Structure prediction request, 342 residues.
Amino acid sequence: MCQGFLFLMNSKIYILGAGIAGTTLSIFLDKAGVDHWVYDEPKFSRSSRIAAGLANPVVLKRQKWVNAAELFMPASRQFFTSLEKELKTKFIHHAEIEHVFHKAGEVNDWLVNSNKPHLNQHLGSVKKETLPFVESPLGRGVLQNIFWLDTHHYIEQHKAKLRRRDRLIEGEWSGTNTLKAEDKVIYCHGHLLRESHPSLAKAFSPTKGELMLIKGSQLPEDRILHAGVFTLPLGNGLFKVGASYAHQNLNDETSAKGLSFLEEKLNIFYKGPYEIEEQLAGVRPNIKDRKPLLGRLNEQEYVFNGMGSRGVLMAPYLAQHFIEFFLQAKALKKEWDLQRFI
Ligand SMILES: Cc1cc2nc3c(=O)[nH]c(=O)nc-3n(C[C@H](O)[C@H](O)[C@H](O)COP(=O)(O)OP(=O)(O)OC[C@H]3O[C@@H](n4cnc5c(N)ncnc54)[C@H](O)[C@@H]3O)c2cc1C
Prediction:
């Protein structure tokens, strides 16, 4: 079944989870010509499907470069752009974020940081002109050269492909006891790895995130605004507004507290009308040291996880890195290897 990789000759390879991580890894396995099956029961985690999908290498609040983003960002852009061409579909949207400044000091920091390596490609000009219904007396810093991924479309198109090939198992993972000794499973089931593998629970610091979909607003549709929360235009007057961060109630249920947080943050800078259409929640698989969690647990079980708040940015580079480890026995980067928690 697996062409070219002798050690996998008699093995079946399973991926558990078709979120951003599992989908991306499955596409890389396809590209390497490695046959595999993907297990997914969507009801367990909505994180990837509700995400805003921003590929953003800058922590806007602190104007800091995300660790290793100089590796992640070009790989992510290249992967999604060429996949779009190959599949003749559209799931990425080039965008700019205008970060609304709260303090005068922030503007100075922006100007200083925009000359620093890496940040200089993304921190652009400071806009002073007013926007109707938007309060930004100190101006807005333009974050450029980023994009966002329609994660739902990305995942669903690959699932459809797997389904056609009879390689998607739509149901709950049945555990390793149904596997043959030589079969392999790669765990891509996000924050739920804590529950299936309690020995790795200590690595996680998952965060629940909530978003709202709003309509009928006077927000600009040609840019994303950010000030505590972002407003992502989806077209036809619909915006995704988010996101919150919470360490409790780690499930996909929306909450009144989450909603009031989102409204409060939005109302600080946006003074126009809007209607809330829907509220969404998910759990991000954050790792304590904010680095991914990759590697091998034993002969049979592997992990491709820990994309935290930045699955779209990180998954393509990490999938290539993981594939080289999995198929060619190349070393994993130590700081991403799950062995650091064992
Ligand atoms: C509100 C919010 C906003 C976000 N915004 C962004 C953003 O702008 N940009 C960005 O890059 N990231 C964003 N993220 C983070 C991003 O969603 C995560 O990085 C990503 O979802 C991690 O994907 P994953 O594939 O590891 O896990 P998941 O998305 O959790 O996918 C795991 C899959 O496995 C399935 N599964 C689990 N257990 C089983 C089982 N036992 N049997 C069968 N199937 C199972 C689940 O149902 C799910 O389909 C956001 C997250 C949230 C919550």
The two ends are 33 Å apart (CA to CA).
